[in-house]
Each structure stands twice: as C-alpha cells, then as structure tokens.
Design brief:
The chain is 25% helix and 20% strand. By secondary structure, it is an alpha+beta fold. The structure holds adenosine-5'-triphosphate and magnesium ion. Magnesium ion binds next to loops.
Length: 301
C-alpha cells in the first residue's frame, strides 16, 4: 500500500467491514478473475466514462468504471468480455476484475461522482468493472501516447499492434485503438510495455452489432505497422482467433452480471455466437483495410 497517495480513506476492511456476501464472489475469484471489494479512492481518471482509480482489498489498484457511467451500462460487459477474449488469444491486457464498490466508499469521497451537463450524481455502488493498474501507481509511469522515438522502444511493438488490429476487426471496436505504455520510474532504458485498454466500444458500444468499415481501427502512428509484408505478420493472433471454438468464446462471457447487459444476458449469448461466426471473415477484413484509401500497410508486398 502506498501511504503517500492522496485522498486516502480508512480501509473498510480494517474498519471491520467484510465483502458482500453474494456466493459467487465469496472466494475472491470469479471465473479465475479477481472479485474484490474496493477499499480506497485514489483519484479520478480522465476519460468519457469517468473512471476512478481505486485500491481494492487485494492491494491491487484498479481503474474502475461504474454502472452509471455516462456512456452505457454495457461498456462494463464489453470491457470484461473483450478483455477476457484478448487474454485467451494472448494479447497484453491489464487483468480485468469484478470490483464491489461499497456505498460507504462513495459517500466518503465527494470526488466519486458522475457529471453529465449540469447534473452531478454519485458513482453507482455495487458491481463495477476494474482494469488492473500494471504496478504501483507511485512507482509506475503510464503514458497514453508516445512520440515515435520512444514508440520504437516499446517491447513487441509490431506484434502487439498487429494483434490488436485483428482483435479490433473481429470485435468491431468502434473507438480508436487505445494502448497505454508503462515502465517503472527507475527503468533508465525507457523500454515501455504496451497494454490494450479501453475495450468499452467493442461490439459497437451498447448496440451489440458490427458496423464494419475498412478504415476503422487504424492506429494514427503508422510506424507500428511498418513490419507488415503480408497476412503472415498478423500471426499468431489471426490463427488463434480463427481457432477459438464457440464454447471458448462463450466462456469469456460467463458470469458477466445481468446489470451490465441492459436487456439481459440472452443478448450477450447471441453476441458470443455472432463473434464465432465472424472469425471466418477476418482475413478479408485485413485485406480490405490494406486496400482502403488510408493504405495503412505501405510495406505489404
Ligand atoms: N489498467 C489501466 N492502468 C493504468 N491506467 C489506465 C488503465 N486503464 C485506463 N487507464 C488510464 O485511464 C484513462 C481512461 O481510461 P479509458 O480510456 O478506458 O476510459 P474512457 O472513459 O473509455 O476514455 P475515453 O474518453 O477514451 O472514452 C486512460 O487514458 C489511461 O490513461
Ligand atoms: Mg478511452
């Protein structure tokens, strides 16, 4: 725990409060993922969904998105489903988690609010989505963008961005691809590690459909695609996605709470089925992007 962090509140746990009793989260884990209670507000984060950085009872820090975020309740389901799919195909994504946010934490921290226009309301308590902060916030540098000179020093730059490209085509991520780049503050090599973040607009936000477009999902810094000579450069991720079976895809949607689905879990099942169908169109989607006016892969032979 970092005692220098601002806005520290007393740990609810040390105050004798125990996590909520719902059986599915009693073991601190759901479907192999952390399922934990938030115990400390650290700060608000930037971003349209108005997330907060919270510390949880497992002493891990999480960027947390709430059910009443101004985007859509389904972005929580999208984040969880897509992060689990990304993990299964081996893409670097911060560990997703189920975060129980107690009302006491919200009422004790006036900054835990959602602002829409002139309206201000408290963040919703209950189950929220958490994206684990890769490291201790006091000791880890997190960058949303890097200049090209530093981008070239990112570990596995090409494979990660090409894998993310295939993934975004598959899930029809309707937002620009977002990555964070992290390194320890004492790492003088300036070698950053990339992580895929913000999967909230995969499956087209709250729509859960796939308005495909060849010019979507292209990262604005083109040097990340310099290595592309052909479809083979999108491996191993392309084949890994193509080889997923329907059961594996559905498993990644398992135990996503109904409150995150706005309309029920049946639609989430249907979404998983449609993802299984879409795999076979992935190669053509990459070729369509290559041939698009944006010409994202200038070195394609
Ligand atoms: N797991 C994480 N670890 C560290 N920082 C993170 C993590 N996830 C998100 N962030 C930071 O929080 C910011 C907001 O996160 P995110 O982009 O997911 O929110 P958003 O509300 O969807 O943003 P947008 O305005 O792009 O829609 C990011 O720009 C990034 O700096
Ligand atoms: Mg974002």
């Amino acid at each position: 725990m970092n005692n220098n962090l601002p806005n520290k509140v007393n740990s609810l746990r040390s105050a004798g409060q125990s996590p909520p009793s719902a059986a599915w989260r009693s073991k601190g884990e759901v479907v192999g993922l952390p399922s934990v209670m938030a115990v400390e507000f650290i700060r608000r984060m930037r971003g349209a969904s108005q997330p907060c950085l919270l510390r949880a009872e497992d002493d891990v820090y999480y960027v947390v998105k709430f059910q009443n975020n101004p985007q859509h309740p389904r972005i929580l389901a999208n984040e969880m489903f897509a992060a689990r799919l990304a993990e299964v195909v081996g893409l670097p994504v911060p560990r997703p988690a189920f975060i129980e946010v107690p009302d006491e934490l919200i009422s004790g921290n006036p900054q835990m609010v959602i602002e829409t226009g002139t309206r201000i309301e408290p963040c919703a308590g209950g189950l929220a989505f958490g994206s684990s902060f890769p490291g201790d916030p006091g000791l880890t540098l997190v960058m949303d963008f890097l200049p090209d000179r530093l981008l070239r020093k990112v570990r596995r730059l090409g494979p990660t961005f090409l894998g993310a490209f295939v993934f975004d085509k598959w899930t029809c991520n309707c937002n620009g691809r977002q990555m964070i780049f992290t390194r320890s503050v004492d790492d003088k090599t300036h070698a950053y590690t990339p992580w895929l973040i913000d999967q909230g607009f995969c499956f087209n936000d709250g729509e859960w459909n796939f308005p495909d477009s060849p010019i979507r999902n292209i990262y604005p810094r083109r040097l990340v695609y310099e290595s592309v000579r052909g479809l083979e450069n999108f491996e191993p991720y392309l084949a890994r996605i193509e080889n997923l079976d329907g059961g594996q895809i559905k498993e990644c949607a398992r135990d996503i709470p109904g409150e995150w689905c706005a309309g029920g879990r049946a639609e989430l099942q249907r979404l998983a089925e449609r993802l299984a169908e879409r795999k076979r169109r992935l190669r053509q989607a990459i070729i369509d992007a290559k041939n698009s006016d944006l010409r994202p892969f200038p070195n394609w032979r």
